[in-house]
Fold:
Amino acid sequence: MDKNINIEKNLAPIGIFDSGVGGLTVAREIMRQLPNESVVYFGDTARVPYGSKSQGTIIKYSRQIVRFLMTKKVKAIVIACNTASALALEELQKEFDLPIIGVIKPGAKTAIAGTVTRRIGVIATEGTVHSQIYTKVIHQYDPDAVVISKPCPLFVPLVEEGWLHDTVTDEVARRYLSEFDDKNIDSLILGCTHYPLLRNTIKKIMGSRVNLINPAYETALSLRELLCTHNLASPLQTIVDSHMHQFYVSDTPEKFMAFGNSIDLPFYIEKVEQINIESF
Structure:
């Protein structure tokens, strides 16, 4: 009996949530790195953005989302949102009896492991930068590391507009990234889930001397480690079928679906369901 229950738990999906569509870059990496795992994704598209809201509000929203994901029998949760990772992760880990990880620690850990100058740049939303969460986590690994953070608020609307390769985006990126011209950084954390979609533009401006760190990729690797540690990895030997992934939003699904199917996910999103997240 116990064995059957364990198998059922191992086959349970991974819960992923974000304030909107950006967390799909995290879901994309999880699908690529853990192809035997199914995913339940929730995008809080009715209440985006999170970056300008208070910690109490972010905790309240995140708590509602975790309650919803638990109705889908998820075995672990990834907070694919830098703001919610910064402001709600610790509280959620105390409240809920299942493994929950965020996107900040994996990226910070990789930055420290790879830096030579011990000077690390962070680009993120204003909310994430003002929380100083990356600086705090990086200093847990190396108290003497220098962290230079720059908010890049226009990157999110440019990505959502689909202007990934556009002269306007290039000019905005150049103006933002000029902050690092004389800072001698050798690592730059893409501290918002939208930013990996601008990787080519950012790389072109920063040059080969700066290592770009994508927390989405590092989070997928951390999730794999977490599942192994808790004996929760899927026993499936075949790649999960696209129909085993589920997508939910708190507002109309059309824009979410269009964005998701424009960013090279391993599977085409065929269905997105709108739910009333306030009821949780």
Q: What stands out?
A: The radius of gyration is 18 Å. The first helix runs from residue 2 to 10. The longest strand covers residues 119-124.
